[in-house]
Design brief:
The chain has a 7-stranded mixed sheet. The protein is globular, with a radius of gyration of 15 Å. A hairpin with a 3-residue loop joins strand 4 and strand 5. Helix 1 packs across helix 3. It contains 4 helices and 7 strands. It is α+β, with helices and mostly antiparallel strands and about 160 residues long.
């Protein structure tokens, strides 16, 4: 088991080899994802840094009922870009507060404690997300996130009665 308190920054350079173990792939993906969201997402940030860590056949399975899940399953680079565009519309920022991971070269389970700030409300939510991730050839192939408190995540995005 390994614990990390913050995600690594930096995307792949021209001479950088793809990471070999699943955790390294995800650590770099999380940094790219957070930078993409912070930059405003689709139309405001380059998706290339995120895409560098995604297999062309990547599949993301999101739980229904969250404000950014849409259809629930997002496939390929186009699907992931659409998901992250929606995700970036909902969230102004995401900060990885704690990360623990278990796994090997092809599979990793990650426990993330994340703080999100909603664009529409400015409210923050500090929550746990556990992800089961499969990596192929140094890129994320499949991700299944499980949110500890999906209602709290959704509530952060909903206007309060006093906000109306």
């Amino acid at each position: 088991m390994s614990t990390t308190t913050a995600a690594t920054t930096g995307g792949p350079g021209a001479d950088e080899q793809p990471p070999v173990d699943a955790w390294t792939v995800m650590e770099r993906f999380y940094a790219a994802e957070a930078a993409y969201v912070a930059s405003g997402g689709f139309g405001k940030a380059s998706y290339d840094r995120v895409a560098a860590y995604l297999d062309p056949e990547v599949t993301l399975h999101q739980a229904p009922g969250l404000p950014f899940t849409g259809t629930g399953t997002w496939r390929g680079h186009d699907g992931m870009e659409r998901f992250l565009a929606r995700f970036s519309e909902v969230w102004e920022s995401m900060e990885f507060l704690e990360q623990e991971h278990w796994g090997d070269e092809d599979t990793v389970v990650v426990r993330n404690r994340v703080r999100f700030r909603a664009r529409a409300t400015g409210r923050e939510v500090d929550t746990l997300i556990v992800q089961l991730i499969t990596v192929r050839n140094g890129r994320m192939l499949e991700c299944r996130p499980f949110y500890w408190d999906p209602e709290a995540v959704a509530d952060a995005c909903r206007p309060c009665d006093t906000d109306r």
